[in-house]
Amino acid sequence: xxxxxxxxxxxxxxxxxxxxxxxxxxxxDAPNQLKGGKGKKTKEGDEEMTVVVPPSKSTKLSATPPSKxxxxxxxxxxxxxxxxxxxxxxxxxPVAKAISDIKSNFPLLERAVTLFDARFSLRALRxxxxxxxxxxxxxxxxxxxxxxxxxxxxxxxxxxxxxxEHVAFGKSVSNExxxxxxxxxxxxxxxxxxxxPEVDIFLGxxxxxxxxxxxxxxxxxxxxxxxxxxxxxxxxxTLDSLSARVYFYYSLFCEQLAPLPPSPSxxxxxxxxxxxxxxxxxxLRKDIDTQSTVIVLLLRxxxxxxxxxxxxxxxxxxxxxxxxxxxQVARYLYYLGRIRAIQLRYTEAHEHLTAATRKAPSSPxxxxxxxxxxxLLLVVELLMGDIPDRATFRIPSLERALQPYLQLVQAVxxxxxxxxxxxxxxxxxxxRRDGTYTLILRLRQNxxxxxxxxxxxxxxxxxLRDICIRLKLESEESAEYIVAKAIRDGVIEAxxxxxxxxxxSKEVGDVYATRExxxxxxxRIRACLALHDESVKAMRFPMNQHRLExxxxxxxxxxxxxxxxxxxxxxxxxDDLGGEFEGM
Length: 584
Fold this sequence. Notes:
Layout: E1 14-15, E2 18-19, E3 24-26, E4 49-51, H1 57-61, H2 80-88, H3 94-103, H4 106-115, H5 118-126, H6 128-131, H7 137-147, H8 153-162, H9 197-213, H10 217-234, H11 240-255, H12 267-270, H13 272-285, H14 288-304, H15 308-317, H16 326-342, H17 346-359, H18 367-383, H19 403-414, H20 417-426, H21 428-434, H22 437-441, H23 443-458, E5 461-463, H24 464-471, H25 476-488, E6 494-497, E7 502-505, H26 516-538, H27 545-569
Antiparallel strand pairs: 1-2, 3-4, 5-7, 6-7
């Protein structure tokens, strides 16, 4: 159409469906006077009315009117301007941010000391996971230089551990990232502030983590020994949660030093006196965190060198604290289950490992512990003569890790000795790495028993020669011995005829006529009651709440005595009380 601008395909801003922001003239369609008398007639000769199109939301929200460029286009607010502002915004220095995150934990440690509340120390320790990836010697040295005075011996020892002895003290990265600005004096200098020992140990733990992540195990072991001696000499209850973490990393460093366990000359053997001394001190000081952590570390230490008797002796002479953290309880139950499984006490091992898998954290970072505990639990169930539930192998976090054990369960379930030996030959390295190889070798007799039980259910009478051929045994005498032992253990209901050389099965009765269903039901009820008791113990109640309840009850009894005395004296009547006295 003539006089109409060509379509620009969205290059111009659109307001209410019309390109451009100019007024639109309505011809021959609008009256000369608006309704209600609000409009005015136009000048003489003008027979048209101008209607202004209302602005869009983006224009209404902006404080300044839209500006036109040289081509008459209107600049849209929030597009080019915001991009320019984002481009010009100052970027946060990652080094300064890491330093600020580390120093933000110091007020938490001070509050833990002031209020004598370990929860603030635990909050500081939980923040390590977010700081861990950004730890460098320069960042740690800068934090030490900004926190301590140049004459502090603790700062010098920490800087020597980082090989940064010549760092200048007192220099800050940026004024915006300052935390202790309020401590400045009027003359512009910072007042000297005493640094609590908890800050020293917290920075020492960060140095331990830096050594561990960079595999500086020898330096980490030496520094950890010095840090443990410092904690032992301080004797502060507010260091309990921090000291437990120090001993944990100390043990990890020694486990990774050559020669590796189970060598008798491994450094894990030399650390045992230090751990036992720490356990004695923690018991005397009633340090629950350090006590639970060191007991778990000692059990792990003994198991790494196959000193099962010493581990069992430690369990019998120590009592694991009831109020320990859930993660330490899960570890303790796992090591206790492993020791009981090695000692052929499969029922106790099954109980401990089941509790360990239930208490295992559900976070993805703890998937390794859940997989390890489940693997050992499956082997123990097979040694007990039970077949694990197939749903266990379908859990997404366990499906891939339990694939070799699924094949092992299938071989044991059908009682095929050849398939069982093939699985061991194929996945032997995996079983050795998991620490279950020696326990799996014990399953050979279970496979044979399972095969005999399957044959006793399938045949009413079967010769010993056929049993020897099907189970691939060496001779008929060994088959006779195995069948006799299975009958004595109650695995099968059968009788053995040695003269004719066959096994005769008895008729299978109703299982519900036996005590087996009642015993299984009793086990489930006992597990549910134990879980309920543990849940009640884990609940946190307000401090001294019982004293407030006793006080309120005592006041109520005193009021009742006063009212009863006044009624007896005639000062009050039951009608004056409004019936309240009857309910007391």
